[in-house]
């Protein structure tokens, strides 16, 4: 709104007929500004709350990275740099949040309260306009009273004087309202824009600081990225080799067990299931401890020893 469109104080005194129209237009603009202000206040309040929650989470992440640096010594330098960098950025974020609360949010709340006071005063002025209008009509309908036949002295009823006093009081209230409306339109809107400018400068300062900190970590990020690619390729090859060894070992275990089960069946052709299971457990105590690197060490010798044990047991039986 252009400031020269504000209602003039002189118009209140002269009771300019276009005054109420100008006030109405100014009130409409003030209402629109109030809606914008409340939306801004709500958004900033939410940003402060979410900023504190985010700060808490990143602080926990920084501590976790510091612990990881001790557990993973191969990458401790990079992890320590990450932890320190995040901690420094969040320290600056805390400063930004505090500045936003004190220098942006609180002034916006004050502006909103001032607008609400002016809005209440506007309602009082509107009611005053209606009351004065009604009393003026009544005043205009009252005829003067002559005290004598020569009409040398004319008086008015007390109600007419009361109407003039009412209009005087209302005009003073309206003058005060227009003065506050003019001041609010000028100062509060300028103050709002100023606080938004300060907020953007604070955001810029924080973003610039975060960029500097992340730039300091860039060499470690690039180096670790290349290193991880190499390590991941090596790990993939080792995983493939482990799968091959795993399959071969499973096959060797199955073959060895089948071979020993065949030996047990030949030695005890009439043995029941419980005996077979008992003998099979004894077999594992011979065979499994000899397993190294996916192969059975001295498997033939252990099998022969086991066969001799079974044969001697049969003879004694």
Task: Write a concise synopsis of the structure shown.
The chain has helices spanning 9-14, 19-71, 76-140, 158-267, 273-287, 299-316, and strands at residues 145-146, 154-155, 291-292, 295-296. The protein is mostly helical.
Taking the alpha carbons of the first and last residues, their distance comes to 115 Å
Number of helices: 6
Give the overall form. Answer: elongated
Average pLDDT taken over every residue: 79
Molecular structure report:
With 317 residues, the protein is mainly alpha-helical. Helix content is 84%, strand content 3%. The protein is built from 6 helices and 4 strands; from the N terminus they run αααββααββα. The strands form 2 sheets. Strands 1-2 form a two-stranded antiparallel ribbon. A hairpin with a 2-residue loop joins β3 and β4. α2 runs antiparallel to α3, α4 packs across α5 and α4 packs across α6. The longest helix has 110 residues. The protein is elongated, with a radius of gyration of 47 Å. The chain starts with 8 loop residues before the first helix and ends with a helix.
């Amino acid at each position: 709104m252009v400031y020269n469109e504000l209602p003039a104080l002189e118009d209140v005194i002269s009771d300019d007929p276009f005054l109420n129209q100008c006030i109405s237009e100014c009130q409409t603009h003030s209402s629109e500004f109030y809606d914008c202000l409340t939306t801004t206040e709500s958004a900033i309040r939410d940003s402060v709350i979410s900023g504190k929650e985010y700060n808490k989470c990143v602080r926990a992440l920084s501590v976790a990275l510091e612990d990881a640096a001790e557990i993973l010594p191969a990458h401790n330098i990079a992890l320590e740099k990450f932890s320190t960098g995040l901690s420094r950025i969040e320290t600056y974020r805390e400063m930004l949040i505090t500045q936003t609360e004190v220098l942006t949010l609180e002034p916006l709340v004050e502006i909103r309260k001032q607008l609400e006071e002016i809005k209440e005063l506007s309602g009082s002025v509107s009611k005053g306009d209606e009351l004065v209008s009604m009393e003026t009509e009544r005043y205009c309908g009252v005829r003067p009273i002559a005290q004598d036949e020569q009409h040398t002295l004319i008086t008015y009823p007390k109600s007419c004087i009361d109407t003039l006093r009412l209009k005087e009081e209302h005009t003073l209230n309206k003058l005060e309202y227009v003065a506050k409306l003019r001041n609010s339109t000028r100062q509060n809107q300028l103050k709002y824009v100023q606080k938004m400018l300060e907020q953007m400068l604070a955001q810029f300062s924080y973003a610039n600081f975060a960029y500097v900190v992340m730039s300091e970590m860039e060499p470690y990020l690039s180096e670790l990225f290349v290193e991880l690619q190499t390590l991941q390729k090596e790990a993939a090859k080792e995983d493939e080799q482990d799968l091959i060894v795993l399959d071969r070992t499973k096959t060797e275990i199955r073959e060895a067990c089948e071979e020993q089960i065949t030996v047990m069946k030949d030695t005890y052709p009439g043995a029941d299931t419980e005996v077979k299971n008992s003998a099979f457990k004894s077999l594992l105590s011979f065979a499994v401890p000899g397993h190294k690197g996916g192969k059975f060490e001295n498997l033939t010798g252990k099998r022969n020893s086991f066969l001799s044990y079974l044969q001697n047991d049969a003879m004694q039986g």
